[in-house]
UniProtKB/TrEMBL annotation:
Domain Reductase C-terminal: residue ranges: 317-400
Keywords: FAD, Flavoprotein, Oxidoreductase
Swiss-Prot/TrEMBL cofactor(s): FAD
Pfam annotation, one family: Pyr_redox_2
Protein's name according to its UniProt entry: FAD-dependent oxidoreductase
Organism: Paragemmobacter ruber
């Protein structure tokens, strides 16, 4: 009987296993994960879970009963040490586990601050796993001083939690503006104002020279020589694809584990999906760090394992929750040269990214209609005139029929 082994018990791994069973795959399915918890949602970690508004069990993607009923074996708290692609075997906990098809859904790992500048001091955290957030939750006490290194979405979400819980929060961003890598100045301006109104101090064009303290962090020294006190520090400086296992097995890596349009890697019978994988995209290669991509690509791989021979077509979408603002993003804004701004009801707003006349992406703040219409337009390959988008007298839904 065929055996599919999935390495990585996150969103992509769980989605692949569930899709295999939904498609009627009757062979063995095993998910191997390094963490002791069953597959769970990561986005709420830096939001509702950190705030104490969500219990661990509510993070779980499926109940324990689901895996048992579906005949999906979970091997948790276990690390795969090696892959032998010739013998079709993975080594885990000293055991050799054979596979007929192997799916790598190893995800990504957070960048950490270098030990040379104090990154290994106690009180310095990253936000990636359940254990990461459990370790820092006790630090979130009203009146304490939190310094966040990095003004991306993870850093800003952590800042929102800190401000809501009454901490004194400072965000350091080396670039000229927060969200510079991922969003237009208009979106940066929106979130800068949002956090400023909640008492968060945002220092842009400000680098970190080093963390201060003996044994435990007590402050930070900035690139301009200033020193700020800190009771704890969160590093939100990005993530990198977890490719070490694949590289050691001789599997090709190019901005992640390199896949073809079907999700196959350079090694026979080995597939990849999610944060760890890159795939063909408009003449180049793309790697997406999102829940949507993790699910969609993993399900496409499951279909192709079952013989569909169906190329994966990414439809990028993302979101972020900060205070009472929900940001929803459709598309990819790479290469944009103009922004159309559309005001919504009750302070909602959306920013529409264009390259020439082509609509690339939409950032919608508390405007689900703008997001849904924008997402649909992008998927349909339609690009309404930017002036029409910006005109609040124009009903967005009419643009879908134009």
């Amino acid at each position: 009987m065929a055996h599919v082994v999935i390495v990585g018990a996150g969103q992509a791994g769980a989605a692949c296993a569930a899709k295999l069973r939904a498609l009627g795959f009757a062979g063995e399915v095993t998910i191997i994960g390094e963490e002791p918890a069953p597959p769970y949602q990561r986005p709420p970690l830096s939001k509702a879970y950190l705030l104490g508004e969500m219990e661990e069990e509510r993070l779980w993607l499926r109940s324990a009963e689901f895996y048992a009923e579906q005949g999906i074996a979970l091997r948790l708290g276990a690390r795969v040490e090696a892959i032998d692609t010739a013998a079709r075997v993975v080594t885990v906990g000293g055991d050799a586990v054979g596979y007929d098809e192997l799916v790598l859904t190893t995800g990504s790992v957070p960048r950490r601050l270098p030990a040379a500048i104090g990154g290994d001091l106690a009180g310095v955290f990253t936000v990636r796993t359940l254990a990461d957030v459990d370790a820092m939750r006790a630090e979130f006490v009203a009146g304490r001083r939190l310094v966040i290194v990095g003004g991306g979405y993870i850093g800003l979400e952590a800042a929102a939690v800190g401000a809501k819980l009454g901490l004194a929060v400072t965000v350091l961003e080396m670039a000229p503006r927060i969200l510079a890598r991922v969003a237009a100045p208009e979106t940066s301006d929106y979130f800068r104002a949002l956090h400023g109104a909640r008492g968060v101090t945002i220092l842009e064009s400000t680098g970190l020279e080093r963390l201060l303290g003996e044994g435990r962090v007590t402050g930070v020294r900035l690139s301009d020589g200033r020193e700020l006190p800190a009771d704890f520090v969160i590093a939100g400086v990005g993530i990198v694809p977890a490719t070490a296992l694949a590289e050691a097995a001789g599997i090709a890596v190019e901005n992640g584990i390199a896949c073809d349009a079907m999700g196959r890697t350079s090694a026979p019978h080995v597939w990849a999906a999610g944060d760890c994988a890159s795939f063909p995209w408009k003449g180049g290669r793309l790697r997406l760090e999102s829940v949507g991509n993790a699910i969609d690509m993993a399900e496409a791989v499951a279909e192709n394992i079952c013989g569909a021979a169906k190329p994966y077509e990414a439809l990028p979408w993302f979101w972020s929750d900060q205070y009472d603002t929900k940001l929803q993003i459709a598309g990819l804004n790479t290469g944009y040269d103009q922004i159309a701004t559309r005001a919504g009801a009750e302070g909602a707003v959306s920013f529409w990214y264009y390259r020439g006349a082509e609509l690339l992406a939409v950032d919608a703040m508390n405007d689900s209609r703008a997001y849904m219409v924008g997402k649909r337009l992008i998927e349909m390959g339609k690009s309404p005139d930017a002036a029409l988008v910006a005109d609040v007298a124009v009903d967005l839904k009419t643009l879908l029929k134009a």
